[in-house]
Amino acid sequence: MRILVTGGSGFTGQRVLRQARDEGHEVVALVRSASAGRVAEGLGATPVAGDLDDPASLDVAFRVDADVLVNVASLGFGHAPAVVSAAEEAGIRRAVFVSTTAITTTLPASSKRVRLAAESAIRGSSLDWTIIRPTMIYGAAGDRNLARLIRLMRRTRVVVLPGGGHRLQQPVHVEDLAASILAAATTDAAIGQTYDVAGPDPMSLRDLVLEVGSALGIRPVLITVPLRPTIAALKVYERLAPRPRLKSEQLERLAEDKAFSIADARRDLGYAPRSFSSGIGAEVASL
Question: How much is the pTM?
Answer without folding.
Answer: 0.95
